[in-house]
Write a sequence for this structure.
């Protein structure tokens, strides 16, 4: 028996079918970034809402057969889902293998019972978890003998919440404010009990024909405290009315406290909700630029990135700065960019094309650069340096290029000094200003122009200035205005042009349309 | 002659580069504590400690005739503004380049008479953006403008005696013959705005127009001789 089970466990472990099945389950039930889960969640929401709709319809109508079948179908799916979740929650065969191998290793007798105990415990842990209970409450009332619990079918609606992350936020609020909320609940119950007792003592003796039992008194007390006040039971004696006044005053305080606790708590959570939303959106982007520090320089950079439809994420340590940002298009996260764990969470490895480090403190910049380098050794890092003397250290830390504010500004000043007209014009062409732009046009691998001379490109048909070419094998060498009949084009060569947006676009289309069609 | 008002960090960098380019310049620094840095760095011996509230101080340095360019680089915006305004009143043709920290300051300085304002945060932000957006183009232009490459971008003022005076761009092959690229022209007849030649408009070149050419330095000097400039 033991051997059969262990062998079976190994067989499962080795089975490709089983692994694939598990991956499939994981993708539709748990993996938030999979497409299948989204479709699955949506169809589950549809099932839940339609079955609850049936429940409401059933009150005054008899159901046709096909609706009953639909109900069975839905319940069937719910059951399958629950079983699926139970399966994914813990891998039993792995536990058996692990225990078996451990006993082999320690040279003691393997006891199947131990594994079974652990597996059962883990499975029951899942069955009694909040998620599973919601699922079960949605399934069980469909069983005829439990028809009385039909009302619990409404719990299916909770399943809808389960498929959205908002439920998590609410439960987190309640868990975090547990102490305050419990105290408040106790106070609330005390007030209700207190006033119910008073009214019962004074008016329950037959003075008030509406209050016949203590339950009536509790009901009255509750309706009054909640400020709903139906008025079906009203106090008739002076003592009863005095009790009501005190009760109403107390109820206002309780409600005010309750509201303030919940709202402030949700408010506190709001930032972290925003943050996780930002992280989720940024994770979907294929390529984006990470900007560390959101100061004046970063602002200029961000404005330009935004205008040119670049994706970017800002990391900023100062909450005030983040709060002052009102632009919803700007993805910003509060956090310390020197923290390796945060950088890992963002995922420096995958989608970030460049990192720009822009704090005004060189020591912080250095620390950020090193943190990034410890996560990823290839990514280009552009860093701000605030002193000439620290430049070398930032380069040692791993920055690929450096920007020093005053140095850059002094170059610009020199540019204006030496050639004001030309410099202003050039300054404009580098930012895609409405006028002329300088552009790089790459020759792609499938281009018809490859291995042909440069004069096969008909520059004269376009209103552009051809400045020169950069060959892929010699990126640092700009070949200015070469003899076009002597240059042979290769893949990934870059043509440098100046022209107007429209003419450059025309030229790019011209280059791209000349490709070898396979 | 160039005048630098205020010895900020930016001014120090500028002075360093001006000295490297062998340009002559004067530094005015009103603050005594900053004066120490001026004397320590010693990029020039033409140093004055004027506060510049009195126009006579600027006049005595030669703002009306001797000075062609004024850099207002003081850390205090109001001082920059004051000197910009005074200098503009004293000399209408002076080139004034002022340091500012934000757009509002820039607007005020331009109202006071500055030709150009420089905001280090902005220039740095733009530079990073360009490095991301067009890395090669930026490198080429930076190299041409600031490094000692055989290539150069020059703006050339058309004088009365120049051969090009009165000709239209379509009828000239002197640029091609000299391996030069005409980037554009600032035509006084049309506007003060720079027009790129890639717009494809046929311009008539007149006296006082400024043409901007890109090419090898020797070609540019050859070209200048050829057109009698």
């Amino acid at each position: 028996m033991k051997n059969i089970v262990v062998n079976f466990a190994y067989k499962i472990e080795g089975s490709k079918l089983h692994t694939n099945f598990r991956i499939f389950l994981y993708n539709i039930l748990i993996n938030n970034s999979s497409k299948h889960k989204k479709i699955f969640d949506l169809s589950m929401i549809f099932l839940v809402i339609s079955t609850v709709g049936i429940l409401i319809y059933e009150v005054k109508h008899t159901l046709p057969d096909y609706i009953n079948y639909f109900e069975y179908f839905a319940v069937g799916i719910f059951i399958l889902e629950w079983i699926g979740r139970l399966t994914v929650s813990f891998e039993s065969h792995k536990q058996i293998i692990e225990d078996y191998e451990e006993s082999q290793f320690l040279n003691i007798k393997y006891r199947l019972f131990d594994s079974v105990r652990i597996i059962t415990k883990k499975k029951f842990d899942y069955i009694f978890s909040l998620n599973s209970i919601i699922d079960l409450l949605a399934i069980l009332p469909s069983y005829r003998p439990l028809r009385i619990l039909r009302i619990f079918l409404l719990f299916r609606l909770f399943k809808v919440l389960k498929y959205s992350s908002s439920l998590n936020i609410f439960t987190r609020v309640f868990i975090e404010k547990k102490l305050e909320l419990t105290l408040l609940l106790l106070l609330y119950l005390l007030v209700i009990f207190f006033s119910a007792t008073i009214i019962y003592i004074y008016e329950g003796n037959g003075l008030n024909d509406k209050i016949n039992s203590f339950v009536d008194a509790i009901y009255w007390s509750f309706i009054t405290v909640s400020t709903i006040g139906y008025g079906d039971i009203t106090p008739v004696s002076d003592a009863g009315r005095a009790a009501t006044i005190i009760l109403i005053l107390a109820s206002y305080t309780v409600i005010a406290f309750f509201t303030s606790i919940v709202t402030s708590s949700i408010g506190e959570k709001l930032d972290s909700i925003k943050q996780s939303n930002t992280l989720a959106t940024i994770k979907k982007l294929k390529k984006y630029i990470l900007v560390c520090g959101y100061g004046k320089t970063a602002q200029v950079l961000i404005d330009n990135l935004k205008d040119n439809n670049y994706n970017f994420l800002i990391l900023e340590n100062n909450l005030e700065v983040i709060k002052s940002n009102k632009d919803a298009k700007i993805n910003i996260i509060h956090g310390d960019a020197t923290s390796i764990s945060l950088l890992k969470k963002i995922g420096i490895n995958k989608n970030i094309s460049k990192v720009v480090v822009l704090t005004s403190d060189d020591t912080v910049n250095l620390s950020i650069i090193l943190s990034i380098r410890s996560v990823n050794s290839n990514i280009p890092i552009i860093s701000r340096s605030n002193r000439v003397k620290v430049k070398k250290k930032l380069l040692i830390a791993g920055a690929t290029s450096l920007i020093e504010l005053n140095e850059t500004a002094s170059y610009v000043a020199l540019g204006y000094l030496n050639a004001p007209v030309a410099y202003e014009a050039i300054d404009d062409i580098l930012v895609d200003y409405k006028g002329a732009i300088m552009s790089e046009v790459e020759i792609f691998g499938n281009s018809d122009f490859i291995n042909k001379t440069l004069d096969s490109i008909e520059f004269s048909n376009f209103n552009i200035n051809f400045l020169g070419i950069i060959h892929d094998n010699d990126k640092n060498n700009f070949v200015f205005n070469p003899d076009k009949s002597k240059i042979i084009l290769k893949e990934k060569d870059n043509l440098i042009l100046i022209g107007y947006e429209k003419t450059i676009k025309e030229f790019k289309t011209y280059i791209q349309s000349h490709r070898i069609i396979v | 002659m160039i005048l630098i008002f205020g010895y900020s960090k930016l001014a120090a960098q500028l002075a360093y580069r001006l000295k490297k380019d062998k340009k002559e310049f004067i530094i005015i620094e009103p603050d005594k504590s900053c004066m120490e840095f001026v004397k320590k760095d010693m990029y020039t011996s033409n140093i004055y400690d004027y506060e510049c509230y009195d126009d006579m101080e600027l006049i005595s340095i030669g703002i009306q005739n001797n000075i062609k360019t004024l850099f207002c680089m003081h850390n205090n915006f109001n001082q920059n503004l004051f000197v910009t305004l005074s200098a503009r009143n004293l000399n209408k043709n002076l080139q004034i380049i002022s340091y500012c920290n934000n757009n509002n300051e820039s607007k005020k300085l331009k109202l006071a008479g500055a030709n150009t304002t420089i905001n280090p945060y902005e220039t740095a932000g733009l530079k990073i953006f360009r490095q991301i957006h067009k890395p090669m183009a930026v490198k080429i232009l930076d190299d041409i403008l600031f490094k000692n490459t055989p290539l150069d971008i020059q703006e050339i003022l058309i004088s009365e005696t120049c051969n090009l005076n009165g000709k239209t761009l379509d009828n000239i092959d002197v640029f091609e013959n000299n391996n030069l690229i005409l980037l554009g022209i600032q035509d006084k007849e049309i506007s003060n705005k720079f027009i790129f030649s890639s717009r494809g408009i046929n311009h008539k070149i007149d006296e006082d127009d400024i043409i901007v050419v890109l090419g090898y330095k020797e070609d540019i000097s050859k070209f200048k001789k050829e057109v009698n400039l």
User: Anything to note?
Assistant: DSSP finds nine helices and ten strands in chain B. The two ends of chain B are 23 Å apart (CA to CA). The domain at 2-120 of chain B is CATH 3.40.50.720 (Rossmann fold).
